[in-house]
Amino acid sequence: MSNAKVLPLLEADGRDVAPCCPPLTERPMTAVEAEVAARMFKALGDPVRLRLFSAVASHEGGEACVCDISDVGVSQPTVSHHLKKLREAGLLTSERRGTWVYYRVEPSVLAAMGKLLTLPAPA
Question: Which of 69, 74, 76 lies closest to 92 in space, CA to CA?
C-alpha cells in the first residue's frame, strides 16, 4: 500500500483540474476521490458530451474551436451547455479568441483518467 499523498493537478490559474488518483486496483477510493471521479465519469456518460470530448481530444493541435466541433446532431445552445458541463467537471479548458472559443483537453486530465483505470503490471 502506498502512503503517497494525493494531490490535485492544477491549471495555470490555480483551479483544480483532475485528481491525482491511484489506480482503482491499488486501494479503495476515499470519499473525495470518488466524488471527483464520479463527476468526470458522469460528464462523459452523455453520448453528446463524449463525442464533444473526443472531438476536442483528437483534433489536430490538441485544441478545437467550437465552430469545428459543433456538428454533433444537437443545436448550438445545447452544444454550449454540454461544453459547459465538461468544463465544470474539469475535463476541458477554454479560451476566448475574438468571437470564437477554443477548447483543450489538458494532458493531465487524460493522464489522471488513464492512471485511474490502469491495471497493475504483472509481478
Answer: 69
Cα–Cα dist 123/108, whole Å: 27
- C-alpha cell, 87: 468544463
CA–CA distances in Å: residue 38 to residues 77, 99, 101: 25, 33, 27
Q: What is the pLDDT of residues 53-66, one digit of tens each?
A: 999 999 988 899 98
**Cell 489506480 identifies what position?**
23
d(CA 117, CA 54): 18
Report the side by side order of strands in the sheet with 63-65: 63-65, 100-104, 93-97
Q: How is 71-123 classified by DSSP, letter by letter?
A: -SSS-HHHHHHHHHHHHHTTS-EEEEETTEEEEE--HHHHHHHHHHTPPPPP-
Phi-psi category of residue 87: left, alpha or beta, with phi > 0 → left and psi -120 to 50 → alpha: alpha
Measured torsion, CA atoms of residues 17, 114, 111, 29, in degrees rounded to the nearest 10:
50
Dump pLDDT digits (tens) for 93-103. Answer: 999 999 999 99
